[in-house]
Design a protein that fits this description.
The chain has eleven helices and no strands. By secondary structure, it is an all-alpha fold. It is elongated.
Length: 226
């Protein structure tokens, strides 16, 4: 069996030390020493000990953006579902590392803040894409795009947390089901709410939509994308 890469050894060493000593008490030098590498090698792979904990959000956001950009107007919502599945699969691939991160970020306030900031980046990307897809510059449409993006991210986070807690036997199926629930709430622009063949909640005014935003934002800010 080949030796794990330096990047993997550093991550394993970091989480082991965080468990033993606590996050605040662990230094970059401690992590490098435990992994059997020098500081230079550490900083070749990570910019800080905080970065060891989180997945490569920049790369993942790029992959999501590329998937969204390959869609047409008629396949835009399929692309959104595919992008959400892509994020979930990234966490599933991490396996135990993702679960250890979940435990750690639940304990350290600074890491929760970092996770919440990451959630906001994903939501902004989806909101911008959905807004372009809607092609409607009005404030009402902007609010609807915001609400839809928040619902997309909240659905993903709900399934991800269930998997992290060991409650989801088939998280990919669950996230696909969750996305169908979300998208059923938002018929395509110009479509009659009853024409999709699914149960749809019709928002008749911007005020109706705005009334729901605080609860969705509280959900995201309270739990993050963990």
């Amino acid at each position: 069996m080949s030796k794990p890469s330096a990047r993997v050894r550093l991550a394993d060493a970091a989480f082991a030390l965080f468990d033993e000593r606590g996050y605040e008490q662990t230094t970059v030098d401690d992590i490098a020493e435990r992994a059997g590498v020098g500081r230079t090698t550490f900083f070749r792979h990570y910019r800080s000990k905080e970065e060891v904990i989180f997945p490569d959000h920049d790369r993942l956001l790029t992959l999501i953006r590329e998937r969204l950009q390959t869609s047409s107007h008629s396949t835009a919502l399929v692309a959104v579902s595919d992008a959400v599945r892509l994020v979930l699969l990234r966490y599933l691939d991490e396996g135990d590392l993702a679960r250890r991160r979940y435990v750690l970020t639940s304990k350290v306030a600074a890491l929760r803040d970092r996770e919440i900031a990451s959630v906001a980046r994903y939501q902004r990307l989806f909101r911008e894409f959905i807004s372009d897809w809607m092609g409607d510059p009005t404030e009402s449409a902007s609010l609807r795009a915001e609400l839809m993006a928040a619902a997309v991210v909240a659905a993903h986070n709900h399934v991800l947390r269930r998997w992290l807690r060991g409650e989801a036997a088939d998280p990919v199926r669950e996230v696909d089901d969750a996305m169908r629930e979300v998208l059923a709430l938002f018929p395509p622009p110009g479509a009659h709410p009853q024409s999709t063949g699914t149960t749809v909640v019709a928002f008749r005014t911007g005020q109706d939509i705005e009334a729901l935003l605080p609860s969705l934002r509280n959900l995201l800010e309270g739990e993050g994308a963990q």
